[in-house]
Structure of Aldehyde dehydrogenase (NAD+):
Amino acid sequence: MSTSHPFLSRPVLPLFIDGKWVQARSGETFDCVNPSTGALLTKVARGGAEDIDAAVTAARKAFNGDWRKLKPLDRQNLMHKVLAAIEERFEELALLETLDMGAPIARTSTFRRWIQLAFRFYASQAVQPRGTVFANSVPGEFMSYSLKQPLGVVGAIIPWNGPLITQLWSICPSLATGCTLVLKPAEEAPLSALMMAEILTQAGVPPGVINVVPGPGPTAGSALAAHMDVDRVTFTGSTATGRRIVEASASNLKRVSVELGGKSPDIVFADANLDAAAVGAAMGCFNNTGQVCYAGTRLLVERSIYGTFIEKVAAAGRALRVGDSLDPSTQLGPLASRAQLDRVANYFDVARAEGARFVSGGDRVGGPLANGYFVTPTVLADVHNDMRIAREEVFGPVLAAIPFDTEEEAIRLANDTSYGLAGALWSRDVGRVHRVTSELRVGMAWANCYGVTDPSVPMAGTRSSGYGVKGGPFHIDEYLTAKTVWLNTQ
């Protein structure tokens, strides 16, 4: 498959502000690299605080105009038109995501279905009734009711591990409610957000409704989080950075939602379908080369099956084809950046120093893939829950297997973490499934499956995994503000 892409024909890919391509005020650029090869893809304008301010100004101007007043049916029709435009260029988007962050083309090619589901669900929300009439006991003839109106300007700081999908968690509800948007994609993977802005504008989304400013987190991201004219900021990324985003957002007490790190438990009981659980546990951790916030990276296995089961999981990992992301047969691509490769390699050293046993993996991939950022899927045994490898988020294909003896111990180990994004269990006992899912301190739990999501179903985190809802009708409410009206009818 060709590595050329029509969207990368410019010498420098600019920022997108107020419906126009513009260079960064500083004139600075950064390199965008193909993680499968380490080769330069393009140069991108490096946005800073001044560019963020220009984007927020454009977003506020668009919000104060006719955009927020668009009729519900017109808004729904526009979203259907945008979806049609995305589908027309979907192959370009999928290829760009593969080149930019390394997800295999076999994976990004499946995103069409998810994009359809997202746009159709949020378009349906655009025409839902909003507001409530309240009974009141005030003497006289008073009517009391509430309105739900678009919140305003939304700043979205999106991660590098899946930007094509992640950005839609902000784009779709903004279009459905009448908010305007400033996207700040990560420097490691900014391309799909820039192309998406072009597609939306060509489909009829007015200038200023979507603005895209790639740039460093400490400058562009911090400026967006602290901006006094941003009404809501949403962030997906590490817990440490999330804390700084929350602190910066206090400038004007803007609304915040943060989806942060995870060290999610995947619990396997002896009565489970072990063949299905082994494949599920492997993909629950190794999918997207382990670069998933809710990846099941702590495998808790009932002691009576511990040895045989982790061998099954390791075999499932070895069977996955690691290769160039453009090869249609590749199942696992590279890590998204050189920095992430170094991070994962360091955790291999940490695991060895702590005494973990490598059942499989633990190596960089050499040969024809040596210039890319590839590692082998890794299963670690003889792990205790107090080891760093069991407590810290690696964000790579590294699975730490921990034995347990009783249901109560499994629950205790699962909850013995600072995170709380997701968790899963495998068992044929329906009563046990209900008991354990009820006790897991997570925002999302799976039983006899892993990683199943749908844009119409809410997902959220707890504790150090953040707060705020994505998906489902609750998500729409985060883009609306409620206003109570009292009307004297006399």
